[in-house]
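Deliverable D4.2, example record:
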Amino acid sequence: MARLADYFLVVGYDLDKRVEGEGQGRILQRFPEKDWEDSPFPQGIELFCQPSGWQLVPERQPASFFVAVLTDINSDRHYCACFTFWEGLDNSQLPKAETSEVDEVDEEPAVVQSAQVFAPKSLVLVSRLDHTEVFRNCLGLIYTVHVDGLSVPLETVIGNLLTCVIPIAGGSQRTITLGAGDRQVIQTPIDDSLPVSGSSVAQLFRQLGIVNVLYLFCAALTEHKILFLSSSYQRLTDACRGLLAIMFPLKYSFTYVPILPGKLLEVLSTPTPFIIGVNSFFRSETQELLDVIIADLDGGTVTIPECVHISLLPEPLLQQTQTALSMVLDPELEVADHAFPPTSTQPSALKIQDKEIRAVFLWLFARLFQGYRWCLHIIRIHPEPVIRFHKAAFLCQRALTEDDFLMKVLDGMAFAGFVSERGPPYRATDLFDDLVANHVERIRQEEACPHKVMNHVKELAEQLFKNENPYPSVAMHKVQRPSENRQNTAQNQTPFPGLDDVAVQLFIDHAAAKLKTAPPVVKAEVKGMVPSGPPLGDIVDRNGNVMANSARRLEVVRNCITYIFENKMLEAKKLMPAVLRALKGRAARVCLTQELNQHVLQNRAVLDDQQFDYIVRMMNCTLQDCSHIDEHGIAAALLPLVTAFCRKLGAGITQFAYSCVQEHMVWTTMQFWEAMFYSDVQNHIRALYLETEGEQQNHSEQQDGSGSGRQISALELASEQNRLWPTLSKEMQAERVQKEESTVFSQAIHYANRMSYLLLPLDTSKNRLLRSSGLGDVESVSNSYVTNSIAGSMAESYDTESGFEDAESSDVANSVVRFINRFVDKVCNESGVTNEHLKALHTMIPDIVQMHIETLDAVHRESKRLPPIQKPKLLRPTLLPGEELVMDAMRVHLIPDGREEATGVMGGPPLLPAEGAIFLTTYRLIFKGTPTDPLVGEQVVTRSFPIASLTKEKRISVTLPMDQYVQEGLQLRSSTFQLMKIAFDEEVASDLAEVFRKHMHKLRYPQHVQGTFAFTVGQCGKLVVEHKTKDKNQSLKTLSKNLVKSAKRTIGRQYVTRKKYSPPTWENRSSFQSELDEDEISVSEEVDQSSLTLSSTIRSSDRQTMSNVVERACCRDYQRLGLGTLSNSLTRSKNEPFRISTVNRMYTVCRSYPGLLIVPQSIPDTTIQRICRCYRQNRFPVVCWRNSRTKAVLLRSAGLHAKGVVGFFKSPNAPAAVPSQADSTSLEQEKYLQAIISSMPSYSENSGRNTLSGFTSTHMSTSDSSDKLRQPKIGALMKQVMGTKEDAPGTFSRGGKWGSIRGSGRLSAYNPDVGTRLAGKESPQPNGGPSEALFLRQQKAYLYIIGDKAQLKGGKQDSFQQWEVVPIEVCDVRQVKNSFKKLMKACVPSSPTTEPNMSFQRCLEESEWMALLHRVLQVSVLVVELLDTGSSVMVSLEDGWDVTTQVVSLVQLLSDPYYRTFDGFRLLVEKEWLSFGHRFSHRGAQTLGSQSSGFTPVFLQFLDCVHQIHLQFPMEFEFSQYYLKFLAYHYVSNRFRTFLLDSDYERIELGVLYEEKGERRSPQVCKSVWDYIDRLNKKTPIFYNYMFSPEDEEVLRPYTFISNLKVWDFYMEETLSEGPSYDWELRGRQERVAEETAEKPDTSGPKSQRRIVWPCYDSLSKAVPDAITKLLQDLQSLEAELGQTSEKWKDTWDKIKTTQRTEAKLESKPSFSSSLLMSSNLSHQRRSQGVYLQESGVGSSINLALDCEASATSTPVAGRPSTSTLYSQFQSTESENRSFEGILFKKGALLKPWKPRWFVLDKTKHQLRYYESRQDKECKGVIELADVESVIPGTPAMGAPKNIEEKAFFDLKTTKRVYNFCAQDSLNAQLWMDSVQSCLSDA
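Output generated by the structure prediction step:
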């Protein structure tokens, strides 16, 4: 029974007291005056009566009522019902200050003068029961009595109210009356543990909606701060009540204030969670709260701040809950789409709906907490049950360890309260207990079917409703309300009177006396055993990802363990990797612990070393791979095992497994030990009572396994014991308490031992354990055990910290002692161990630890003596000649990176991780080792890259899968698209790793280029470059000195300007010290006349060097192109348009240009020296190629200096007041351009004016008649490159070599008229060409200048000039650099990723590498087109050495077939890239100086472009794709000197430009990559493209859209078997080594012929060669077997090709039957098709074209140079014309011996030639077949070669003499005779 009301108060406005202009309330009267003992009077009620503050108002307000909730210090809630009404005050009653206050309240000053103001007065009722309606009625009644002046004295009513006593629960109804003719029925709930909600929950959902309330629900459970806003106080209280009701069975235990007064708003900034309601009036004050979730009830919104993350219910619970709620709240939703909706689908009445919603939440909690009772540990039963919840076990069995929401709920205060309230096994039960115990099965089956769920919910709702309204509602209420008129016309109303407290007190005393005499009410509490429900084990986790093949994995684990214990170690070793992989799954870990358990006998299992080793490894793996929480289940199962498995180390010394599995965090986690301890204690206490109950028979049943269903759980036992407790005698009770206590105590000792086992490291001097883990524990009060320091050495003082650390062994002991002490204190206090026992424990622990340390010392000593585990033998890498080791083998592990092929993800065993060593040489970084996976353990894994290509190195820490140590490692990335992630083995000291890094850096960034491998190769290990060494080439020295002198001489008389560019500084200049002054200076005055001729400046000793310059390849090329010759006297025929100028022979005009340059004939050198100043880096326009057909030229230069631009575009006839210097140079520039234009034949024919007739006539006269049709093509291209808006899709193409064009839209529009003028503005004809007349009207410029858009701003175009500027956007070097970085990360990722936006394609796209290629190719194709139509082009972009070089070289490659041969491509690179000064060293960051600029692969980009063209035109290139990869690799490798340094000038200065022919120090060291390729090409066809079959004068026009470009496989492929294949010496050697090892007798039994080729391991070209290579190889090996000297592959190939051709010629029409492999035929086919394509547009005779083409392929036709002559321009071997060849011995003249000679029978020339040897180019003699009379078998003559059979001799009789020959054997002789005979008969 309880009082309905504890206190009654009257609170009014305090007229005397005002704080800072605010009114206050004060308690006028309170009853009773004295506090009740059981419920003290709550403070501060006057604040809650007027939460928005006490104020006077000018008008009377209606009476209001609400309930506020106060929480007292014992966390009991007091419900304060406030009834407020307003009383008038006269002005006279107010002190002066008050009147002014009314002003503030109301802004209209007129009202103030009203005679009356109104003050609030509240009647307050304080109760511990929550009966809102009853309170409203009671207070309303008191007010009514007062207002209506009823005859009942107020004292009586109040006295009755305060003495009314009602039951708390039980479901009875009470009728009460306050003696004023009223009557009320109070309904008590049946069970007071269920909250009473009325209709507040339904109301809350209506206000906020389902999702919002669920957010609030989750926020409240996970302890967030929640604030409700509403303008109604009663609604705030209801909303808070509703939120608490749906949290049942959890109880909210933080701050709960449904109505917070404005004065106390600062409470909102408390750090603890809360649920608070505030009036909307204070909304603005709540705005700055950063971490509070605000629910606005009136607006229906919930605002969650950014910094707050609410964990929501786990799926699928969330979804199911939402569905159920919407079915309750909005039943129409389901049938909204039905054609015939049912008639009534109204939601239930509000009160019913309220219970349905609560039922949904009850159902939700039953699912969340199902099985919770199985995770309760009962550690004491008597005198009080002590219960702990094992969170880890609960989460694991639910497979929700990762779930954020449940974790937070279980950690929360509410759940702790839940456990202490519902944990006890013997107590009264309620609806929730029943649900969670008996309905789990039903819930599980129904959860997927919403309608069944709904039925269940409705049943639960019914029970909830029953609880609140057990009886049908009775209409017995009768409460007076004040009459209407009194309410309104209460002008003269009397104020609420003071009450007579004596009268009231009398009532109270009277009632108290009555209670005393009344018999006590005994409420029988029904206690019972709480049912536990089904155990958790049955609950299958549906969304836990069960491995598909888990059964197979468990099988593997079981087998492996069986093998280990049966000592089949080899079998076990094979299974080990699979087992370690399987142990990543939980099932396998559980299986492991179960299997190991079976091998333990009497708590002990002794193993031998290897068994021990394997078992420990498996344990470590099991412990390592689990999450923080999941470990507990597994670690708990392993704990007894680690103390069971052991091995004998020596006499009486045993090492247990625990000493090897200490490295895991779990052992340092306090919660783990507590959970373990409690579960053990529970088992022991259970056993204790099972024995006392004499349940042995049950025990025995269990052992038989028959009664397993009857096993009594500890909780059931405890419940039984609790029931019996009151019946026991005192002695029995005491005995049981003592027994339990000593059980706990003995367990504590046991655990102190266990913990010392796992916490004390084997080597206690290492002091490793608790510090390294640095483990601060959630629950720990002080983390001091982490700071391994001790203030007093007393073990107990474990809360002190002294801040210094000493690594004594006692230190480890102390920290362990402290850890164990904290553990013991905690568990013993919780489980009620007596103080004496606790003290005993504290003294015992240090001894236990000390004892253990002593035994460990012995174990440690012995374990050191064990032989170390065998590590794989380190393999030595093969080195290049001249390559030396800088650091020898360091044992490392090669860790897999993001490339999946090698890791076995794509199938096959994993090749990585591999174990081996890393070597650092002067040239490369090499890893060589074997995979750790035993299935591929025989394979060798090699990864290497040139040290010079290292782009990024970063430290990483790696955890290897095989053992637990985290190692330091390095991640090294190389620009050859290689990545090495290495982890140093523990045997490698960390300082050694540091030395390795330093050496690597020194080699990667030498001080000077001379420090690179290409220079230091062969200089025994001296890494330091010495400059003082005497240079062998004297003449070179003199040249460089001379250069310096003449430069100085000219500097003397020069006008000096500072220039931006300074070449990379040399560190040691020694002989070039004087250069320093010249670095910063550019030459800009006239050089005196005397220096204009070669002979005058260069002394005779230097002439030879200058002739070197002349011999340079470029000059050969210029002569080939007809761009001028260099005669000795500098006079040359004036009719040539261009001349080779020597103005830059001293590199004074432009430091980065070559010494000889092609300029227009008419421009004197003096002009050049002035012009060059307008261009950046002085790189003025020079000619680099001329189209042999249209005679258009291609020029290259840098962009203009900013100041030069504007002057350059001023129209020539603009009046200039003063001819400034800028003007004169710009005029000279124009003159220069004009000179170039006038050199073009089409211009000179036109007599210099671009007249219409002249233009068309020359145009028509160009050789190709389809030109006029192709013209619009360029316009379209031009627009595309410049990015104008109109698209002119070109469709017509010549010879099938051209792709259609679409505007790429990448480049923004600039100067569109250029493009349109070229394209023609009117609509083109259907075939894409514009109408003829339109075409004639167009004007074509003679010279197009491709310029950088950014630079050409402000230049105005002049319509009369003959040149036109095409502005384009160039890719900046920075763009290339960043793009390349991203490309590397895409192609060689450092770690595997599963994010969809990090996939390879996405990364590739983001790198924009393809877009950059597209842009370069696009511009190049445009230039090709312009040149082909007869306009000259000048490419003048950036500094003229990056993009310009790319474009110019691509244009030449596309336009001129010569550059697509070996010699031509070499020449192209030497000319455009090396001579014209592409800054290889700078862009490749090859030295320390250029390190900061970073690696920018401009040349690689060019090679990629060539690769793209090669893919589209595979028959046009003599070299293969491998050739391009080879160059791409070696241009960054620094193995050759070719790609070092930034210009010819620098190369001359270092003396590397002209390698002296005669004095190579070591013949095997190639200094030039070209020589190396030449040599290699002779040996093997690797660089040759078998499909090479060029067309004459073919211009290539590749497609350039990104969709047509392919990713170069150079970026992707790797060969782990041998490393990169670009150093051929290594390749050969490895094969030789392999052959040697293969020769050993093989005893392993028959070998399978089948070979598996791994794409990332084997070299595909080697394992699966293409057909032709294979045939050539077979041929060679057969020749070798026959003992013949093998032919060169090239000769064989050419011979076969020739025969192919003759066959083709003999056949009348081209057929596919003759081997299609042979490229001549391919070309035949292609040509015929090409012709069809082309002629269809023009309609000429097809057959004619075919015939002429066909003849052109086989034999050269006069007037057109054949491809062969083009190809062999620099090669005298006429390989085409050899019909039969071989070695014959020929008898010399009289008395001369027989000599072997190489004979060639040439059918075409009809002669038999002979050479000294096969390689020889010079023919020794010729026998004309026309003179031969006969060929007959001969006889051996004197001096003939020995042991050769007689039939091998034959004689050749000519008209002049008889030749005696001897072949190798008779067969050969017969062949020769037949061949010669056939030639004779053919003739």
